[in-house]
Write a structure and sequence with these properties.
There is one protein chain. The two termini are about 20 Å apart. Strands 2-6-1-7-8 form a 5-stranded parallel beta sheet, with helices on both faces. Strands 3-4-5 form a 3-stranded antiparallel beta sheet, with helices on one face. The chain is built from 10 helices and 8 strands. Helix content is about 45%, strand content about 15%. By secondary structure, the chain is α/β, with parallel strands linked by helices.
């Protein structure tokens, strides 16, 4: 290389979709950190707008009320995979958006088309401004948000594996009730009219049921590096 300069890897946009408990967040953050890419947790954005709606006293059972307020909160997502941040109107909401209150209502809020339009526009602008490339994780990234992503990956896992992981994350939550909650969320996300959870036709499916997190990360890193090499 002339002047000893290191080669610059081409920017790559990676969409990682799949239901809860498949290892999306852990995998996406690790892959982005390892490859020097930005990272965006789109689920956190939907949780953030849900948190705002709850705190603003919006009736979560009234889609019209949610739609009318969709453009009001100002959401800012930090894209450093080592320490991703999420702010609403200048408030750090990383912890409160993970409460059961928010978790139980995020599907209803995120099903409202006006909410999805608002958040999708935000997601596209973040991806477009990521100079080195970005790993974007969610449920409709490859199908709706970034249909032209360089690489689309759809993570899956058995309901049992997902429930075991999620109950472990929730420190002692009952596996059976966790499994029921995951399946209920799947049904809501897959059947909504606006951008349902779905695998893109050109996505690479990775079943993580019997893989360790490290194995999933290595698999995805390899896929990204192959895509970079082909650019």
């Amino acid at each position: 290389m002339e002047n000893g300069a290191a080669p610059t890897a081409p920017a790559v946009i990676v969409a990682i979709d799949g239901p809860s408990g498949t290892g999306k967040s852990s995998t996406s953050k690790a892959v982005a950190a390892q490859l020097g890419l930005s990272y965006l947790d789109t689920g956190a954005q939907y949780r953030a707008i849900t948190w705002w709606m709850v705190n603003a006293g919006i009736d979560i059972d009234d889609p019209q009320a949610i739609a009318a307020a969709a453009a009001k909160p100002h959401i800012v997502s930090g894209t450093d995979p080592e320490k991703p941040t999420i702010m609403v109107d200048g408030i750090d909401v990383a912890a409160p958006i993970r409460t059961q209150e928010v978790t139980s209502q995020v599907s209803a809020v995120s099903a409202v088309p006006e909410v999805r339009a608002q958040i999708t526009e935000l997601q596209r602008s973040i991806a477009a401004s990521a100079a080195q490339g970005i790993v974007v994780e969610g449920r409709d990234i490859g199908t709706t948000v970034l249909p032209d992503a360089d690489l689309k990956i759809f993570l899956t896992a058995s309901p049992e594996a997902r429930a075991a992981r999620r109950s472990g994350e929730l420190k002692g939550a009952d596996v059976h009730s966790t499994r029921a909650a995951l399946l209920k969320r799947d049904a809501a996300d897959s059947s909504r009219k606006a951008s349902p959870l779905a695998k893109a036709d050109d996505a690479v499916e990775v079943d993580t049921s019997d893989l360790t997190l490290q194995q999933v990360i290595e698999c995805v890193v390899t896929l990204v590096e192959e895509k970079r090499a082909a650019k």
